[in-house]
Amino acid sequence: MAAKGFSGKGGTAHLGTAEGTTAPTKILEVTKWTLEQSVSVNKYHSNATDAHKRAVAGVRDTKGTIELKVDKDDGPGLYAGVEIALRLGTDSDGGSGAATNYFHIKHAVISSAPIECDIEDGNIVGMTFNFEASDCTGFGIYA
User: Fold this and answer.
1) Model confidence over 125-142: pLDDT tens digits?
2) CATH number of the domain at 12-142, out of 2.60.40, 2.30.110, 3.40.50, 2.60.120?
3) In the 8-state DSSP scheme, what is residue 136?
4) What is the pLDDT of residues 54-80, one digit of tens each?
5) Looking at the whole model, is its pTM more than 0.85?
6) Rounded CA gap, 49 and 135, in Å?
7) Dist CA 12 CA 103 (whole Å)
8) How many Cβ atoms from other residues are within 10 Å of residue 90's Cβ?
9) Domain residue spans in the chain?
10) Which letter does DSSP use for residue 100 in this model?
């Protein structure tokens, strides 16, 4: 069976509190998000590894970004140091918040939040939220 790709045009980003005290709400005007999961790899060699180094998975790390356009009447109210929860979907949720293929992050910290204001060309003001997370669970095709 041939593989089928799909467009990220229906991608979503929902924001909640790290403590889970508020239900996640959709972040408006998101143009792009990224998520990078990694693990430290430790290697060793011994008399039992047949002249090869053996790799062992260590601690996990998760980080990412959310890029958005700023609403002049209702900014996102996020800045470096804020603790959040996220749900990042790659398929359209039809406005219901029920994307079937998504990542759920229970606890993340915004590490930086640069704002871009292009005076010369007059482009729409944009922000990028860089975050680091302590957990990440995939659902749907990412489970």
Assistant:
1) 999 999 999 889 998 888
2) 2.30.110
3) -
4) 999 999 999 999 999 887 777 667 889
5) no
6) 32
7) 10
8) 20
9) 12-142
10) S
